């Protein structure tokens, strides 16, 4: 993983062609803290505008979910044979997006990638909010969501356990584990910054609020030692989840004997796609945030370059999966497999979605071969948005095209999403924005303590490279 | 700067954490315990009936067999609630003028059935058949309890799915000879386990635990 950004110096001195600094300028600790905490004390007009919009989206979600619960999932376009449609597409999409958070915060921590420290907070918050959205969909898709607890293995008076051969309890285990670890990891990382917020808050009420959540953090050497150990331990716990969670999600599909689902490539293919879409979401959130909070000295070209390189790598691996998947369908000489991959998907009723997916996921990352484009914020923003749309289309194609035309032509049936389907998707984007905006308003969106220690590290070893 | 929090704040935090943990663990455990109590399963609660029919008098006192009134128990899914004419078979001679029997007389006169209240209610998604249970040696008492001692009939069994499934998985401890089906207070002549295993072989009792056995 040579995503190294190699700063030769911490000072604003001349970046050579090969390198950008991980941080510009030499601010004092106090100046850094003040700068990064500033968004907590006042909200801009743009924030209020976006917050209003996302609140409307959240209300839309609330309304359509209530309607779905009251009337039933007949309000959706789903029907036999397409019993999984938007709900599962959205579920896989959101949970995939979550993966970049853990990837950046845990994976790259263990790999000693110093550039992660400036962006991990945003990525982790994104993970948690994406998981909240992801968890919503399978529960709604149960049809009777108030019985969701039947999925949990507990000693019921029915004297039967959930069917452990079904992918449903696996999902529950994977998602709840992931959510718990992500939340703990995020919160642990927040504690020193919450203490900074407590010490700098302008009013007593805010000091008390941040003080409660800072849990008595004083920043003593003893506390820091324990904190570092706990942080690395949690990272070690979270790292396997980057691989395992989306592998489990992919098994929802590959344990079925349906052409387009029944494939051994699914776990790695899904994990790569998950990290890919997650990195795109990180950029989509980070770029406006960088501008709004003037983080250019902290989130530098080095970070954008590193993320873009990772996205290129993931995009190439995903392309490889697409090719192999299609090749294996042809190579299997199985009529149903060949029909799904070579006829139904590229030329069937959902061909438009298929080609949108292919172009956006395969072609757009190729832009990142060019160094100039890897740091061009407009290109990065548009490519990230495109990749997110492409990855949504991928899940839609996998789910709907495999279901709507399976082995028996007599059971073929077209799927058309209803207005409730679309509204719930739009509403979940609203909820995501709503939570994220609250996050940037009330919690430091850059890990202040990490950035401060990075600054000292860079200042003390001018020749030190960005990756140890 | 004065300390933000007083010393006792530490105690409050610790107590809150302990309370939160207890709540997180305690609430599900309490709910799981609650659904097993007789209150939640509605056991042992006498059900009010339009006529104060006393099973003690009829079963213990008059020694009437269960099947005299619950006539279809050996042949049908339902055990059968007796028509008013069954009452009158005896009560044309005895207690005919009693005010207790006013509803029976009215029923006979109008041809309208008496609306008894159901005591043992299963959900609509459960298929239950009395005849097969009786034919395989499950006595009335096994599920309905000592009806001969009930002034007003109540639900004796929890009727939870685990109660059904326990017996379906291992019927032997609950079986009796076919001749003793309606006996109240029956005791096995030898140890129930061995005796039950014998009855399983004799009556070809199968352990049916498919979902579709009951959920059709």
Map the helices and strands.
The complex is a heterodimer of chains A (about 475) and B (about 220).
Chain A: H1 29-41, H2 45-71, H3 86-110, H4 120-141, H5 167-200, H6 204-214, H7 221-254, H8 266-292, H9 301-332, H10 335-347, H11 351-363, H12 371-374, H13 377-404, H14 419-442, H15 448-460
Chain B: H1 8-34, H2 38-41, H3 55-61, H4 66-69, H5 84-91, H6 102-110, H7 130-135, H8 140-144, H9 161-169, H10 192-202, H11 211-214
pLDDT averaged over residues of chain A: 90
Q: What fraction of residues of chain B sit in β-strands?
A: under 5%
Oligomer kind: heterodimer
Query: What's the architecture of chain A, going by CATH?
Result: Up-down Bundle
The level of helicity of chain A is: 55-70%
What is the chain-wise order of helices and strands of chain A? Answer: HHHHHHHHHHHHHHH
User: In DSSP terms, counting alpha (H) and pi (I) runs of 4 or more, how many helices of chain A?
Assistant: 15
Distance between the amino and carboxyl termini of chain B: 73 Å
Roughly how much helix do the residues of chain B carry, as a percent range?
Answer: 40-55%
Rough shape of chain A? globular
């Amino acid at each position: 993983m040579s995503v190294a950004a190699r700063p030769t110096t911490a000072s604003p001195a001349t970046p050579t062609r090969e390198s950008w600094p991980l941080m510009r300028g030499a601010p004092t600790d106090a100046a850094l803290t003040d700068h990064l905490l500033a968004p907590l004390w006042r909200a801009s007009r743009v924030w209020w505008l976006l917050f209003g919009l996302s609140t409307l989206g959240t209300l839309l979600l609330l309304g359509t979910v209530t309607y779905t619960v009251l009337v039933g999932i007949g309000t959706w376009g789903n029907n036999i044979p397409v019993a999984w449609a938007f709900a599962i597409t959205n579920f896989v999409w959101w949970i995939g997006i979550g993966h970049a958070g853990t990837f950046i915060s845990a994976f790259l921590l263990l790999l000693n990638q110093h550039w992660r420290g400036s962006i991990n907070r945003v990525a982790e918050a994104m993970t948690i909010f994406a998981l909240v959205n992801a968890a919503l969909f399978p529960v709604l898709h149960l049809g009777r969501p108030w019985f969701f607890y039947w999925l949990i293995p507990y000693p019921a008076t029915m004297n039967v356990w959930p069917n452990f051969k079904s992918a449903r309890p696996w999902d529950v285990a994977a998602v709840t584990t992931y959510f718990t670890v992500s939340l703990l990891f995020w919160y642990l990382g927040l504690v020193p910054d919450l203490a900074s917020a407590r010490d700098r808050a302008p009013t007593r009420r805010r000091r008390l609020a941040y003080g409660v959540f800072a849990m008595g953090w004083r920043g003593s050497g003893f506390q820091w030692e324990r904190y570092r150990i706990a942080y690395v331990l949690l990272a070690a716990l979270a790292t396997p989840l980057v691989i395992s969670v989306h592998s489990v999600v992919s098994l929802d599909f590959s344990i079925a004997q349906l052409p387009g689902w029944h494939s051994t490539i699914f776990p790695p293919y899904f994990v790569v796609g998950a990290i890919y879409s997650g990195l795109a979401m990180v950029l989509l959130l980070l770029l406006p945030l960088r501008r709004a909070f003037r983080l250019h000295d902290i989130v530098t070209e080095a970070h954008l370059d590193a993320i873009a390189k990772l996205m290129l790598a993931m995009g190439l691996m995903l392309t490889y999966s697409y090719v192999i998947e299609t090749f294996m369908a042809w190579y299997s000489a199985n009529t149903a497999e060949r029909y799904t991959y070579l006829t139904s998907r590229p030329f069937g009723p959902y061909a438009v979605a298929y080609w949108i997916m292919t172009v956006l996921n395969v072609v757009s990352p190729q832009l990142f071969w060019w160094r100039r484009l890897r740091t061009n914020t407009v290109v990065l923003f548009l490519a990230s948005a495109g990749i997110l749309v492409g990855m949504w289309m991928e899940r839609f194609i996998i789910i709907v095209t495999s279901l709507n035309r399976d082995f028996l032509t007599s059971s073929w049936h077209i799927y058309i999403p209803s207005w409730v389907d679309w509204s719930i998707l739009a509403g979940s984007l609203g909820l995501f924005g709503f939570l994220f905006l609250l996050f940037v308003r009330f919690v430091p969106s850059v890990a202040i303590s990490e950035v401060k220690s990075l600054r000292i590290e860079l200042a003390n070893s001018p020749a030190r490279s960005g990756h140890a | 700067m004065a300390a933000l929090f007083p010393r006792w704040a530490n105690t409050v935090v610790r107590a809150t954490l302990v309370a939160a943990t207890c709540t997180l663990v305690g609430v599900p455990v309490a709910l799981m315990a609650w659904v097993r109590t007789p209150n939640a399963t509605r056991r042992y609660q006498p059900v009010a009936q339009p006529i104060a029919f006393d099973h003690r008098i009829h079963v213990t006192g008059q020694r009437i067999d269960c099947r005299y009134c619950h006539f279809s128990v050996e042949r049908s899914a339902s055990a059968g609630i007796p028509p008013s004419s069954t009452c009158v078979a005896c009560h044309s001679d005895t207690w005919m003028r009693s005010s207790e029997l006013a509803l029976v007389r009215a029923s006979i006169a109008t041809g309208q059935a008496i609306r008894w209240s159901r005591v043992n209610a299963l959900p609509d998604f459960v298929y239950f058949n009395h005849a097969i249970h009786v034919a395989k040696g499950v006595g009335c008492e096994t599920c309905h309890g000592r009806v001969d001692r009930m002034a007003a009939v109540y639900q004796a069994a929890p009727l939870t799915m685990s109660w059904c499934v326990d017996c379906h998985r291992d019927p032997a401890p609950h079986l009796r000879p076919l001749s003793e089906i309606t006996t109240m207070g029956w005791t096995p002549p030898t140890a129930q386990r061995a005796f039950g295993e014998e009855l399983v072989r004799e009556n070809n009792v199968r352990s049916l635990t498919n979902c579709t056995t009951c959920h059709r």
